[in-house]
Design a protein that fits this description.
The chain is mainly alpha-helical. The protein is built from nine helices and no strands. The radius of gyration is 19 Å and the shape is globular.
Length: 260
């Protein structure tokens, strides 16, 4: 575990990076930030004084590289192929090349005993908060992501979306990022740091978005991180995230059909 000063530096640095990449809309800032990450990723491996930053630079570099490549190839327009490619590549890298184990990555079912009550405690306010936020929006920009099919066919589409997206986001934030951050700064600071990345990702176009979206998703990220810490697995967070995503899909459909 790192000394306190290095922990603080690590936390601040990896809180600034998502701000520059996900909050600011200037693409030149994104490019400069990515260039700095590309530069310090190999350098931090061999420069002893900043070697403690290497694992963070490594996983962020890989995540951004794959994302930018998929964007360049226009594959990011084809959900869920884009996120499946990203998460499979990252897990492949960690399991095969880094020799990480499932326990370290929380990539297991985990302890489910006695978690029903806390799961409900987290699920209900999350869903109601999403509904309250969405119903106070003047527009419904998310309708463009809904396929033009009958309401009957939209049901399995919504379930499929919720399953895939819940697995992807919990794997990325509460498994991969949480495990990599916690190796250096400990599990509690890492829970806060992954929640920052998770919330910033939703700022521009996520559901929910904007400043309120950041606050809601930050709290949700903290709750899911806490559950991963308590259960040592992803099952309960994925289930809660599934119901949250399904509620999002239902709200968008209802508003699209002018039913709310």
């Amino acid at each position: 575990m790192l000394p306190t000063k290095k922990k603080i530096f690590y936390f601040i640095l990896f809180s600034i990076l998502p701000f520059l990449l996900l909050i600011i809309r200037d693409t030149s800032i994104h490019f400069i930030t990515f260039f700095i990450i590309c530069l310090f990723y190999p350098v931090s491996r061999y420069w002893k004084s900043i070697n403690f930053l290497h694992n963070g630079f490594e996983i962020i570099f890989l995540y951004l590289s794959i994302s930018y490549l998929l964007n360049y190839l226009k594959i990011d327009n084809y959900f869920p192929a884009n996120i499946i490619i990203i998460i499979c590549f990252l897990y492949l890298f960690l399991f095969v090349f880094k020799k990480s184990d499932r326990k370290t990555l929380f990539f297991q079912l985990g302890n489910r005993k006695g978690t029903l009550g806390i799961a409900l405690l987290f699920s209900i306010p999350s869903i109601f908060s999403l509904a309250f936020w969405f119903l106070n929006q003047d527009t419904n920009p998310y309708v463009k992501f809904i396929p033009d099919v009958s309401l009957f066919l939209l049901i399995p589409v919504g379930i499929g979306f919720a399953i895939i997206n819940a697995f992807y986001e919990e794997s990325l934030f509460r498994s991969i990022l949480l495990s990599q951050f916690s190796e250096q700064i400990g599990i509690i600071p890492a829970i806060f740091l992954q929640a920052i990345w998770f919330s910033f990702l939703h700022y521009q176009s996520g559901f929910p978005s904007g400043i309120i979206g950041i606050l809601l998703t930050f709290v949700f990220g903290l709750m899911m991180g806490y559950l991963v810490k308590q259960t040592k697995g992803l099952l309960i967070p994925i289930i809660i995230h599934f119901f949250a995503d399904l509620s999002i899909f239902i709200l968008v459909i209802l508003k699209m059909k002018n039913l709310i």
